[in-house]
## 1
Amino acid sequence: MNSSLSNIVTPLLNWYHTYARTLPWRQSPSAYHIWVSEIMLQQTRVEAVKAYYNRFTAELPTIADLAACQEEKLLKLWEGLGYYNRVRNMQKAAIQVMTQYHGEMPHSYEELLKLPGIGSYTAGAVASIAYGIPVPAVDGNVLRVITRMTANYGDITKQNTKDEITKQLQAIMPKQHAGDFNQALMELGATVCIPNGEPQCFVCPVQTYCKAFQDGLTTELPIKSKKKPRRIENKTVLLLISESAVALQKRDSKQVLAGLWQFPNVEGHLSPHAVQTQIDQWHIPAKQILESKQSKHIFTHIEWHMNSYLIFCEAQAIDLCDQFEWMEKQDLEHIAIPTAFQPFVSVIKTYLEIKRNRIYIRFLFCLVYVVLKTLHIYFLSSAGAVWKCIKDVNTKLRQKYSINRFGKCKKMNLVKIMIDNRLYL
């Protein structure tokens, strides 16, 4: 046993019981809820996870619900978290729990490791927090804390360093408070012994036993080898709109983001002429092609640099091009579209909203004219003057809220438009 490291157990537990954050998964620490939270928390900030966790567990409160969930709904619930294979593995594991473990998460560390998508860290977290089994749960936060505590210069991306630290923690694991001890280490790493910037050693409950603090090494540790540069991929996203429908397609099962919905896209940054050539090949009759939003999305090993075009298609495009699914705006709320394509969802919604409002405004102009004529409003000289006034306002609105500026327009507020243009009733 590392005698120096064993000294941290009591002060760390006391600190945790006093200062632990209130988190939704800590309010109901069942094996299922701990499992869901730990999978979500991988490479995602706690504050961001809270809303996803609450939504997911509200829709799928039990393992049986997760096992029976339709894939489209499951992916929609996970939308925004990324790493969609994780939730697919969760469903595979849930089905296995239902068939092999009578609907209950296994009660041993070794059995938990047999479930799809559960590695040593997740198994350790579930086993210790839900069942009190004295096994470590070693994640990035814990690796950082312990390498600083022991002035360990091992590379934390290497398995042998993780194995060494796991062994050290196993030796000091308090048998009656294993779950709290693991959570205390994670909490310390997340809030005090932080990864970026200066660690907050002045409030650390175990600084007395920290070799990195004593020797002034906190900014040097942990040692972490640099990742390989991400590969840059250029893409052109084509936002095809016919009437009020937009074209989408599912990604290939062998691609990143497999099986999720996307807007049609091609490799490289295409010119407007090249875009026209591409949609001709798809047999899509286009009325207008406009350059639209640029966006960038970062994956673990890849970086997408995306240009986009908004393409207004003839009504018959839906019948002529069957390689895409043509969906209405409301349909977008029920399918899983990856974060990489969410900026373009905003473009589509903005355009469709402006289009709807333009129709509404035209109807409003007609209504105003009828009301003024019917009530014989005499502040204008004649009905013709009323119509001229309405046409002038319409022209100004068309210029001010031109569809060619859809990417910069905010949602139109009809009351504000009326006030801006002195269109009083």
## 2
Amino acid sequence: MPSPGESQAGSGVGWIILSVIVFISMFGGVIGYKVWQEREVMLAETEQSHAREAAFLAERATARLSEVRSTLNFATTTISSAAPDAFEANARAQLAFLVESDIITDSALLLPGGETLSINAFDPRMRMAADTALASDTGLSATPAANGGSPYIALAQPVVLTDGRVGALVVSLDANSALPDWGDGRIAMLTNRDGLVLAMRPEPTRGIFTESVATRFALLNDQAALLQNQGGAISGLSIGNQDATLSASPISGTDLTVYLVSAARIDASAWRRTQILYGLLFIAPVIFAIGLGAALSMQMRNLKAARVALGDSERRFRLAIEGARCGVWDWDRKSDTVYVTDSLARILGRDAASVISGQEFLALFARHDRERMRASIRGSSNSGDIDVELQAASLPIWVHMRGRPWGDSTTSGMSDRIVGVA
């Protein structure tokens, strides 16, 4: 069965190990939280950068639409000011001029009574698009793909003819030309007010998806409304097996919105430096804590070994003293108390080891020998030891008392402690 010293030492080592584990767990939690915060900051910076790219695309699309509107204004003015006998030739010339733009795919002049002038074969969708565009505040019509068809975007502007009647000049647009094709995995999209896709770069091989952007990317209603109306960016979306960031920016003066989607792009070098920094901040204290715990454990083991050795030494000393029919006494003169071991207590007729007062200790000896004991104690400061034979008070035995002063001397020149055997 382990001794109390061994149990305390073992318990101390267990507490040290538990303390190190708790410290590592708590410190690791703090470091993990800081790393998470750093990643959130980087994601926020990525979202801001993504939103700026979407805003750039919106500005680019706005510039292209402004260019088309300027060209359309010029054409309507030219047509309105043409002489009656040169009206048709002048109108066809302006229609041909309009389609020279890389963003305009077709143009037509819609005349009252259902007549039309166009360069190519007239597309019936142009009349419907013109009606919608002229009825809107933006002069723009954007119809998403339906029933296997393709999206259709048109700009229309009223034209005052030479005879005073009013027609409409309408152009269909190639929205893809307003979007860049970076070729680096980023996807640019142009949507109408309902979030339905009108154009996409790079162009998908299977055609443009027909559901809204909100449905396609599983956006919440408030997220979809925020992106469509105000712009911004949202990260943490899942596309395939990778995280993605979706940003948007409305095109001013229209009901259109530009979307940009790409894989989440965190600055890899900055993220690696952050991981290394916090890794070192975690490892260094952990190594120190483990080393300190190991050192304390070693000290506890050494203390345990010292306690065991001391216990063995005390047991050997006790056995030796008992075997020699001797006992030990220790008189503390400061407190005037005497410690008497088991063997000496039994020799003098007491039951067990105890701490008694000086008077009680002297009372264990015959009355005529007590003064001799006091005189020996007083003289020990000069002689350096005590050597006196005394008769026990209650037993017919003589006890040979030997001892030496130990410790600092008092003001009277006597030692404050005397230790001896009997």
